[in-house]
Design a protein that fits this description.
The protein is built from eight helices and no strands. It is globular and about 35 Å long. Keywords: TPR repeat. InterPro entries: TPR-like_helical_dom_sf (IPR011990), TPR_rpt (IPR019734).
Amino acid sequence: MMLFMIAMTNDDIGKELWEACWINSKTFDQYADELKNKSNDTLALMSRGKAYLIIGKYEEAYAVLTELLKIESENIMALKYRGEVNYIMERYKESISDLENLLKIKPDDAWAEEA
């Protein structure tokens, strides 16, 4: 199985806007701190994980997405994002594992099939 990760696009996540507004800013820190107070809220965990991924804080993104997957093991978006984080961090076996788990849940997922 060959693995080609398709990076999230600016259209998908608004990366340029997020970086321009939040990277190294107090606003981002306040946002992340507020979400930390909702540690069992899967939507808050997803938002934190995605935000960390967008601004390049991959270890933090990995930790938050792993926490989310402990609560909701079949969360497709968490598997996608963590798969991408693993790929970026050159954890290729883990990235493939996340994609394989995603495809077990949603066999026709176009994003995972292309990756």
